[in-house]
User: Which sequence fits this backbone?
């Protein structure tokens, strides 16, 4: 995969994060039709999709260094953002192996993994990491294995233990979340941690999704998209830090909505882990400002229609009530009402 | 993936151990206690897909194969033709019989060739210093072979007569947070599970070996009304795959009976539902079906596609 890593940008303070033209065109836009409703929208996670974001097993992009720097800052202030329960040690090593193997294979110019039995050598050139360690022996790494590798891979991760015909969130690295807390959800069962989601419970989405995931097979990962709106390209919109980002909501005006308002999309992947039989849940977040997104004609039109016609309870849950009309008004001039093709591909190769 | 047979050794006249390596010399995907692989065994007329528990899974996979009596199928081929150096197609490991990591004690019950998954459990239990007790039942004639396979130590006990294993008493004396694992012939598993249920063991603490996950079943014929074609759905493929193999492009997404995308209206015939998407009442009316996992109760179905 072609990966050009930018010098680190900020996702807080002055919010210097910007998407290049290439990054805009590879954005995993989530709306395949003009309306939105919850569904079990899972599909096999095979290489290739509507944009280049679907090419790698674990997608890295130009924001890699800024993302990882932001994660380190969050962990420094709040180490509880990374927690794994003691019975998940096999799953920690499973995660380390899966991420290292895939990233070294997909981005050989930046990462390499050399295995000689249990003696492993890992090189992460962008972050200037060069470590040798013994697989299976946590004391040979500077951090526990799950924390060690997820400090080096974009996206939040949780590990789900499978028992009693259920999944339990028994570990995670969660520093860039859309307003949910690992510290609160740790140890919860599937329906418990999904408790706050409206509408979807009633239409049986979680019952079906759980049954499907319990049968998830090794070597056959699946993916789905989720989305929300975030004011400013801020990765850490956690409940713990609500006082830092909550007030931003009041700063949105019709004049700055295009610059400040971001569509946040999560490319979520679910992978069965071999030794532990746990499931690794990757939540790879992408942020794009409305003014960036609006440069893709199809996406501007479709997002206008989706936000305008959103189910009121979902709009409430996604936290957009305060500025929903501003977004609709901002996007309306881009929408000529033309019939759009189904699917999420940008349908243009340059901006 | 393609494996090469690295070793074959006889444990008894009817039981063989087969060691498999990746044919291209690469590292095999990690295995786990309770996991099984499928072997695509070449037969004269068809390929058999047989599931075997991994008994060991370091640099090589090890399986133990019992020759099924009067078998003309996979186990006979493995006994008669499997030789060092031969290649064979195998699947990735699938684990539908994992150990419960939160258990304080593990009670293992096996019979006959059902010994195999527990041979992989024991090293993991010992490595994690977990308490366990294992009772293995077999016919007297097979006792030497199984005695040689059982691990040394007091935890594993071999039974060759019914009276030496008092199942209700054994289950009754277990403390809370003991998990029960059962593997063997269907009748043996049913007896053990029923005994545990009768004593009030919660379902979450009873684990039975299941190879599950099969998309196949009895073959059937499907007519597609709009496309105006008829297809035969074979025993090893799903209806969805049969449609795709015929060059059609039916809707689908999760391929596991959960998302609802591949639902098609049924005009004639009775579907055999295996999905999680339709409700019980929808299953009963049979007005539609999920092509990815569901099959037919009647020899023929007519679908509106």
Assistant:
């Amino acid at each position: 995969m072609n990966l050009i890593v930018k010098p680190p940008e900020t996702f807080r303070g002055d919010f210097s994060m910007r998407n290049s033209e290439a990054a805009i065109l590879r954005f995993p836009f989530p709306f395949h039709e003009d309306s939105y409703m919850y569904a079990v929208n899972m599909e096999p996670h095979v290489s290739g999709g509507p944009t280049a974001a679907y090419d790698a097993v674990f997608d890295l992009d130009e924001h890699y260094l800024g993302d990882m720097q932001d994660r380190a800052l969050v962990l420094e202030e709040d180490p509880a953002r990374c927690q794994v329960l003691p019975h998940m040690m096999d799953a920690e090593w499973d995660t380390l192996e899966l991420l290292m193997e895939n990233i070294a294979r997909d981005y050989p110019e930046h990462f390499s993994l050399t295995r000689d039995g249990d003696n492993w050598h890992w090189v992460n050139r962008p972050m200037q990491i060069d470590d040798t360690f013994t697989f299976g022996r946590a004391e040979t790494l500077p951090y526990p294995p799950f924390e060690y590798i997820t400090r080096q891979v974009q996206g939040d991760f949780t590990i789900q233990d499978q028992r009693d015909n259920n999944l339990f969130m028994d570990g995670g690295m969660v520093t860039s979340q859309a307003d949910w807390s690992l510290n609160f959800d740790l140890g919860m069962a599937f329906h418990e941690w999904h408790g706050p989601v409206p509408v979807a419970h009633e239409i049986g989405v979680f019952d079906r999704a759980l049954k499907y995931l319990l049968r998830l097979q090794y070597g056959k990962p699946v993916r789905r998209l989720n989305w929300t709106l975030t004011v400013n390209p801020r990765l850490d919109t956690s409940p713990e830090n609500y006082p830092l980002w909550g007030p931003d909501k009041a700063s949105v005006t019709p004049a700055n909505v295009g610059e400040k308002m971001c569509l946040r999309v999560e490319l979520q992947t679910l992978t069965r882990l071999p030794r532990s039989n746990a499931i690794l849940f990757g939540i790879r977040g992408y942020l794009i400002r409305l003014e960036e997104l609006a440069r893709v004609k199809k996406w501007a039109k479709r997002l206008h229609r989706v936000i305008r016609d959103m189910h009121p309870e979902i709009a409430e849950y996604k936290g957009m009530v305060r500025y929903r009309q501003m977004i609709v008004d901002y996007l309306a001039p881009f929408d000529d009402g033309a019939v759009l093709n189904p699917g999420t591909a940008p349908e243009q190769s340059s901006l | 993936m393609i494996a090469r047979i690295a070793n074959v050794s006889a444990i008894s006249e009817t039981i063989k151990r087969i060691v498999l390596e990746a044919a291209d010399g690469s590292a095999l995907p990690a295995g786990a206690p309770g996991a099984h692989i499928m072997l695509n065994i070449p037969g004269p007329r068809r390929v058999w897909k047989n599931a075997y528990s991994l008994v060991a899974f370091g640099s090589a996979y090890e399986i133990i194969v019992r020759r099924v009596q009067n078998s003309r199928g996979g186990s006979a081929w493995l006994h008669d033709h499997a030789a060092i150096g031969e290649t064979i197609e195998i699947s990735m490991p699938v684990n539908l019989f994992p150990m419960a990591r939160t258990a304080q004690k593990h009670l293992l019950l096996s019979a006959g060739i059902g010994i195999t998954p527990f041979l992989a459990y024991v090293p993991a239990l010992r490595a994690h210093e977990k308490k366990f007790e294992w009772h293995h039942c077999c016919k007297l004639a097979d006792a030497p072979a199984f005695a040689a396979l059982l691990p040394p130590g007091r935890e594993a006990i071999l039974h060759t007569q019914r009276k030496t294993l008092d199942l209700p008493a054994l289950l009754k004396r277990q403390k809370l947070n003991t998990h029960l694992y059962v593997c063997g012939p269907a009748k043996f598993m049913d007896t053990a599970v029923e005994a545990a249920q009768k004593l009030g063991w919660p379902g979450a603490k009873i684990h039975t070996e299941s190879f599950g996950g099969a998309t196949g079943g009895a073959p059937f014929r499907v007519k597609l009304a709009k496309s105006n074609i008829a297809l035969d759905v074979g025993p090893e493929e799903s209806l969805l795959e049969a449609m795709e193999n015929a060059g059609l492009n039916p809707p689908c997404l999760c391929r596991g009976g959960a998302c609802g995308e591949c639902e098609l209206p049924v005009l004639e015939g009775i579907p055999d539902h295996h999905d999680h998407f339709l409700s019980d009442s929808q299953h009963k009316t049979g007005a539609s079906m999920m092509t990815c996992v569901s099959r037919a109760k009647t020899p023929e179905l007519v679908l509106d596609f």
